[in-house]
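Box 3.1 A note on notation
Throughout this textbook, protein chains are presented in two layers. The first layer is the amino acid sequence; the second is a token string describing backbone geometry. Keep the layers aligned when reading.
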Amino acid sequence: MQIRSLTLREIHLKLLTPFETSMDRVTERRILLAELNLDSAFGWGECTAGENPFYSPEDTQTCWHIITTYLWPMLKGKSIDSASDIWPLLEQVRGHTMAKATLETAAWDAEAKVKNLPLWKLLGGTREEIPCGVSIGIKETVEELTAAVKKELDSGYQRIKLKIKPGKDLVPVQHIRNLYPRIKLSVDANSAYRADDLHLLQQLDAFYLMMIEQPLGWDDLFGHVAIQKNLQTPVCLDECIHTYEQAEAAISLGACKIINVKLGRVGGHLQAKRIHDLCAKNSLPVWCGGMLESGVGRAHNIAMSTQSNFSLPGDVSASARYWHQDIITPEVTVSPEGTITVPTAPGIGFLPNLKRIDTLTTRKLHLT
């Protein structure tokens, strides 16, 4: 299969409601979409970098620069046997996993179309239906939070994740747990705490949480070792895991009991699969985290989540939770039981809505 061309687009997509974490408050997404021509097939990938470097060192602008200046020249005209060959071709560039994943995931979609296979089957997935959870941003009041949680539970979602930060943690979590003593509940700190906050984090043990996600610094593996030793609640690592080697170190050190796998953060499907297999070998469950993706990124998350060790409900939710109108047809929907039926069409299984994408596009570059 020959890599023939790349069309890179930036679209602006406004969220239905602002989404607040300990790092930032997002009202509109700047999203890069890659359309990669592999032989006769066009595969789509999405860059999950944020508008600023608060979650990751990468942002939308750095990814455009890295893709156009370095990554595309390494790929153009190359012949590959499989999309798994993309990652080795890009290894000379250190880091920039989100930029790499943009092109790598597009290649997987294209290969699946060439082979007339659903992407999830090409990746070795086994599930025809995946369980779904939701991530709820920080709210000003517990009344707002309660209304948001009730809405998602009424929609059938199987797990509720609350974003927390210092001053917005114990009271809202206790309030939701008291209202809903039996739901699957977790929290996500996005690196908002420090080692000397251990006593506060230990108080979260009282609420029978599935996990506390990324309590300490985005690169602090050793700090999480000490935290996990002193918590009953499992620690889940997110921002700390950018590579297979970091996942291996986290498991060996005992820094966590769960890992959140995000395609962009780890560099695409090949690396996500390697981390998935490593965690399965070591009896650590994994789940798919969300990055406020449009339908293209959401479709790739669905395909990845069909692998056997994605045993916890992920953040793969319905398009209508975030967007007035998504950029794919059909849009992603969630059943009343909180599941998504995996598509059976070739590739990602959803069609990009080119007319809508064109109306949202702020810049476009075609490279051959």
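The CA atoms of residues 23 and 274 lie 29 Å apart. DSSP finds 13 helices and 15 strands in the chain.
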